[in-house]
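Budget justification aside, the reviewers requested a transparent look at the raw inputs and outputs of the sequence design task funded under Objective 1. We therefore reproduce one unedited record. The lines immediately below are the C-alpha cells for a 127-residue chain.
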C-alpha cells in the first residue's frame, strides 16, 4: 500500500445490512465498518474495499464476524479469498472521508447490496 492510502472506521447504526442479518449468531449493535482506498498496489493494482464486521455472540463467546468484503479490483478478489478465507464480492464502492459521515453504498450486478450509516466514535484526546 502507498502512504496516500486511507482507512476509516466507524460504528454502524442499525438496521444491519441484509447480508449480516441472516447469521446463526446474535448480532449486537456495536459493529464496525471499514473502508480503505489503495491507489497503488504492486500485486493487485489500485482498489477500494469495504468491510462490515458486526459484533456478535455465539453461545458464551463474543467477537466480530466478517461475512462480506466488497472489493472493486477484480485482480485481488480470488487471491484474497484464498489467503484470508473471507468471501470477496466485486462491487462498485463509493467511499468518502469520514470527516463528514454519510451512508456508503455497495452495488453489485446493478443492485444495492449494502447501505451503511455511521456514528463516529468520539475523538481520542491528545496526550
Amino acid at each position: 500500500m502507498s502512504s496516500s492510502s486511507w482507512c476509516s472506521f466507524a460504528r454502524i447504526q442499525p438496521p444491519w445490512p441484509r447480508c449480516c442479518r441472516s447469521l446463526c449468531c446474535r448480532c449486537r449493535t456495536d459493529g464496525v465498518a471499514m473502508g480503505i482506498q489503495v491507489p497503488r498496489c504492486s500485486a493487485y493494482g489500485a482498489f477500494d474495499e469495504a468491510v462490515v464486521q458486526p459484533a456478535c455472540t455465539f453461545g458464551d463467546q463474543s467477537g466480530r464476524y466478517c461475512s462480506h468484503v466488497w472489493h472493486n479490483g477484480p485482480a485481488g478478489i480470488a487471491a484474497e479469498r484464498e489467503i484470508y478465507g473471507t468471501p470477496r464480492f466485486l462491487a462498485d464502492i463509493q467511499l468518502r472521508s469520514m470527516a463528514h459521515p454519510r451512508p456508503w453504498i455497495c452495488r453489485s450486478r446493478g443492485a444495492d447490496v449494502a447501505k451503511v450509516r455511521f456514528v463516529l466514535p468520539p475523538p481520542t484526546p491528545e496526550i
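Residues 74-84 form the longest helix (11 residues). DSSP finds two helices and twelve strands in the chain. Computational costs for records of this kind are itemized in the attached budget.
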